[in-house]
Amino acid sequence: MVKLITVERAKKEVQRLQHFIDLAESYKSDTLNKWIIKEYAYTNSIKKVVEKANSESLTVKGEPLSREYAVSVINGKANDELHRILRRGYRLKINVSAL
Fold first, then answer.
1. Is-above-0.70 flag for pTM?
2. Whole domain around residue 20: which residue ranges?
3. Residues 24-43: pLDDT tens digits?
């Protein structure tokens, strides 16, 4: 079912999306965990994050980045706004696919 949209709702959605874009583009990925968060913001795919990390030879304690580690980062305690947004979206995504 398609929701009808008003100009006011459209403006708010544009603002919300622009805020998300600004957060992702300005996000400092100075640690592996932050790199995972930023990559997830761009791909919305744990699989793609892990593949890119492994193609760039990023490791966790000398081991290739695993899916489990990436999930634990995304699903872990959020310390900033971008992580909070992505964590909420990830949890909604996995709960919907569980139905």
1. yes
2. 7-97
3. 999 999 999 999 999 999 99
